[in-house]
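Hi R.,

Quick one: here's the N-acetyl-D-glucosamine kinase sequence you asked about.
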Amino acid sequence: MSIAATPRTTGQPAIGSPAKPVFCVDIGGSFMKFAVSPAPGALVPLEKVATPAANWNDLAASLATLIERNAQAGDPASPLALSIAGLIDPRTGVATSANIPCITGRRIGDELSGILGRPVLAANDADCLTLAEANEGVGRGHAVVFCAIMGTGIGGGLAIDGRLVRGAGGVTGEWGHGPILNTSVELDGETLHIPRFSCGCGQSGCVDTIGGARGIERLHHFLHGCEETSYRILEDWQADEAKAARTVAVYLELIADPLALSVNVTGASIVPVGGGLASVTPLIDALDRAVRKRILNRFDHPLVTPALRQEDGGLVGAAVLGHQSAGYGRESAVQGH
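And here's the predicted structure, written out as tokens:
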């Protein structure tokens, strides 16, 4: 598979010309957050409205209304940059989203551009968080940023020199749909053989089947025969409860291998973690220690670390995407680390 960094725009702005404001929307299955970025590195939240997820015409009309109500914050040529919960094929621009069904099968950027009369760019939410972290988060200043999403399931994204890397089909960074490398875990003198669970993608044994919150619950049930929420399991683990401690120990052994492989393959010097599990700091700290034991490089800074832009990563990443498309970007003194 050929993977290349997103090319820089060929039509660079005139030297000294001010950046145009960028309208930004983070479109989730339930709500849309609308903001304007007057310049690279700046973001002004404006509105939050319900997402008309099932009706394309209503979605387009809602976006038009948001822009019209806030026209004074931008100008007629201001691009609209979208973060969406779904996938966008970079070859065709066609979107796929389970949470926003009305955009599935549509060339969302081109179609909305025709309706709204302005440039429209779009990226999925994981890629937008990656851009946000690489430019305005913990990855700022790092040459290669691998963003790991650890929520209900597992996802990710990759940025090089602050710019998004888009691979075939738009699935760069999707470490959740590679196989768990070793399903035999040595723990307290015992060898545990973990089954390769079926994945929603059609494969078996994907990292996604055990790496996210639902995966922790699945693993706990396999090990102990009882149903429990990931929230409770992780609470009990932090309180040194024996069953939870066993579950998390096995979890870390299984997850650290594929994440370390991702670090070695990409050459990342920072791995911001997004998603619900990122809020459990002791878990991310433990994962950081486990990954460090498995990689070739040695770092004097945290490697696997909670993302800084968890709350506004969609909007911040969309803003970065918009400014970069126009040839602007905040200087970040990127280093190789």
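The two ends are 27 Å apart (CA to CA).

Cheers,
M.
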